[in-house]
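Saturday, quiet lab. Running sequence design on the structure tokens for the scaffold JK sent over.
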């Protein structure tokens, strides 16, 4: 429980009501500790609120369904989706975006679709976080925010597809639609950046350069298909240009959230047709300065939320890539911790110790 911003999370008991119409009770099996959770807990997120139960990278088993639920049944393994897919709104019907409109307003305020919460303590309602609240043994979520995945998918791996990994994969596969034989540069080798490297490989990129400040993370990037690993520096753009005959890379990806790195990613994109995809989340009030001449000469810049992934349809497909052996996510799990160690997960993240700590509920 996030009781107040800047304070450690409090592991405590709260009440959870049964699912209502269109809702599902999920027993969590595993949950990743993501930077977004820590960002909100710190108080830096301008849209954050407390008290709330954090967590959004979850995988678990359906225990109970409310009236009208058809797509999942008790016993199904599911991945939680902070980015839902109703399949009916204008955005869901369009191939141009994955930003479902159905429950967006209520979710951003911390409520389930009917404007209420299922969480409470002593009769006082507790708001949900990102519509998921997976730092808990159980959660109630909308049906449209759950992706049914194969029962063969280990939950500690499946949960990684609930946020960062799918964001990176989708940035390359869906948003940029990397072409075979191309040259790609990925800035950042955290979960999102490593996913982007893997996505570029799966799309058939010929050269994949990953840029990071950590030699250990660059080695992980090579394991995902990077052909080159560079330690980041102010000279990175010049080096990209030198390595590409003065033109730049066909595709660049930014996965750090640092505006200075975003600018490097833009400036590293190829004159004529280079596409820079920004997946990192910048700090409150920060802006990105771009020299207009870079755009006039053919470079394009786009953003990518959850990798353009339509969760209920595509997350099961991404999980299947792992099950088929086309994607190795095992190296991403750096630490396995219990729910009572969630604050340690934040500490490990602050020290950049590994890629992902995963809470497992059998500990």
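Result came back. Writing it out in full:
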């Amino acid at each position: 429980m996030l009781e107040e911003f800047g304070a450690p999370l409090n592991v405590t008991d709260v009440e959870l009501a049964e699912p209502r119409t269109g809702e599902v009770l999920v027993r969590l099996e595993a949950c990743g500790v993501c930077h977004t959770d820590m960002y909100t807990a710190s108080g830096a997120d301008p849209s954050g609120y407390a008290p709330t139960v954090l967590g959004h990278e979850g995988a678990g088993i359906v225990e109970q369904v409310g009236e009208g639920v058809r797509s999942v049944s008790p016993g199904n393994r599911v991945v939680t989706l902070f980015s839902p897919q109703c399949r009916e709104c204008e955005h869901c019907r369009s191939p141009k975006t994955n930003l479902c409109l159905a429950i967006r307003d209520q979710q951003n305020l911390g409520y389930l679709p009917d404007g209420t919460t299922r969480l409470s303590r002593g009769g006082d309602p507790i708001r949900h976080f990102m519509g998921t609240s997976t730092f808990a043994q159980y959660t109630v979520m909308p049906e449209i925010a759950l992706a049914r995945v194969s029962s063969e998918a280990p939950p500690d791996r499946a949960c990684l597809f609930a946020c960062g990994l799918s964001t990176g994969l989708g940035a390359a596969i869906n948003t940029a639609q990397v072409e075979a034989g191309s040259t790609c540069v990925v800035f950042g080798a955290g979960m999102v950046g490593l996913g982007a490297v893997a996505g570029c490989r799966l799309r058939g990129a010929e050269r994949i350069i990953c840029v990071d400040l950590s030699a250990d993370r660059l080695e992980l990037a090579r394991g995902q298909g990077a052909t080159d690993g560079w330690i980041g520096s102010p000279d990175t753009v010049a080096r990209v240009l030198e390595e590409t005959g003065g033109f730049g890379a066909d595709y660049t990806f930014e996965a750090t959230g640092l505006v200075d790195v975003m600018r490097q990613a833009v400036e590293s994109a190829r004159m004529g047709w280079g596409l820079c995809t920004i997946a990192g989340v910048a700090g409150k009030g920060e802006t990105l300065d771009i020299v207009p001449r870079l755009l006039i000469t053919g470079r394009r810049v786009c953003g990518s939320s959850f990798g353009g992934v339509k969760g209920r349809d595509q997350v099961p497909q991404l999980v299947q890539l792992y099950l088929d052996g086309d994607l190795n996510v095992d190296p991403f799990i750096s630490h396995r911790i219990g729910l009572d160690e969630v604050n340690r997960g934040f500490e490990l993240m602050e020290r950049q110790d590994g890629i992902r700590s995963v809470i497992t509920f059998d500990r």
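Notes for JK: The domain at 168-305 is CATH 3.40.50.720 (Rossmann fold). The first strand starts at residue 15 and ends at 16. Ask whether to fix the surface positions before the next round.
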